[in-house]
Write the structure tokens for this entry.
Amino acid sequence: MEIKSSAYIISSPDYTKCPSPDRPEYAFIGRSNVGKSSLINMLCNSSSLAKTSRTPGKTQLLNHFIINDDFYIVDLPGYGFAKVSQKQRKNWEKMIEDYLRKRENLVNVFVLIDSRHDPQKLDIEFINQLGKWQIPFSLVFTKADKENQKTVSANVKSFLNKMKETWQFLPNHFVTSVVKKTGREKILAFIAEMNEEFKI
């Protein structure tokens, strides 16, 4: 798939305020600081489409981008570490859950996992929650250029093995590097395939 155009549309505090659900939609989520905005920019061949920040918890709304005038990418707030109040965190959790469970044109959730680390409890818990809600998702292992290939491969394998303890079937997974643009073509090809299925 060639990305011909990409544009920011709107940031919404609630799924009911999101754009009309008339096109396929792909959400990106992960722990704070996992490289979500950077990955979206890399996929869309843009340096500034999604706002990147060194401060965890910067994304606080449902951020919609329209790609090729054909589908939406949504940048969701990160889960886990963010210096916010308990009340604010609860509000985020409700906003994300409502969006994930009620957004009718949501085709797939890309869950970002930092490939530099062993399986993290928070990531496993979030994925298991998606399973309970029966929401389709894929795994995207980020920052593969920040470690040697052997360590990245071992961490990816370890994560998938951890999933095998409770999952019968494993989801699609992609290993990415924003610097080297690794994984870009595979993710875009997957989205293109899903777009075709959405139209049927």
